[in-house]
Amino acid sequence: MDNINTYKKSNHILDTIGYFGPLLLAIENTYLLWNRQYYLIGYLLFGMVNTIINKLLKGIFREPRPNGGVNIFKTELHYGTDIYGMPSGHAQTVVFSTIYAYLAYPSISLLLFNFVILFLTAFQRWNYKKHTTNQIFIGSVVGGIIAYSFFHMIQYWIENRFPKMEEQ
Fold first, then answer.
1. How many angstroms from the chain centroid is the CA of residue 99?
2. pLDDT digits over 117-157, tens only?
């Protein structure tokens, strides 16, 4: 426990970035997709669907979080299906946002930046014993599948509904 406390004090900024990774990427994606309205609507809508799927999976798996979890903030509470750790909602959300952003706006620099946020988020969840590596991995896979599937569904809809519409 002393190692965690020492780590937390020295890297609180990085841990905070990791904790707020889902929110940071949601803000970034909203900004990036602002002029691509259909992709933005798809991102926001399916981002909510992603969250609902996470809650449903937590209720199905009912796998507990690791023992000895440390809260980054005193107000961090878990209730409802959030008492369970499988799959990691943070990991699922940052991977969803990273993949959706890259598919909508393919930029290596954007992808690398998002991977930094993704790594900080996954590490923070593991380091604070909020999730096991397996819970983080499964959350990442689920978020990736959802992003890939729903992005292509939106893209198909745009191309077939508005075949002459030029997306930027």
1. 10
2. 999 999 989 988 889 999 999 999 999 999 999 999 999 98
Residue 59 CA to residue 85 CA, distance in Å, equals 10
Computed from CA positions of residues 114, 116, 119, 123, in that sequence, does the dihedral angle turn out positive or negative?
negative
Rounded to whole angstroms, how far apart are CA atoms 68 and 47? Answer: 30
d(CA 82, CA 21): 17
Mean pLDDT for the chain overall:
86
Cis peptide before 66 (omega within 30 of 0): no
Residue 115's contacts (CB-CB under 8 Å, 6 or more residues apart) are: 98
Rounded Cα gap, residues 81 and 92, in angstroms = 15
DSSP 129: T
Q: Cα–Cα distance between 98 and 111 in angstroms, integer?
A: 7
Q: Are the C-beta atoms of 121 and 15 separated by less than 8 Å? A: no
Global confidence as pTM: 0.85
The pLDDT > 90 percentage for the chain reads: 60
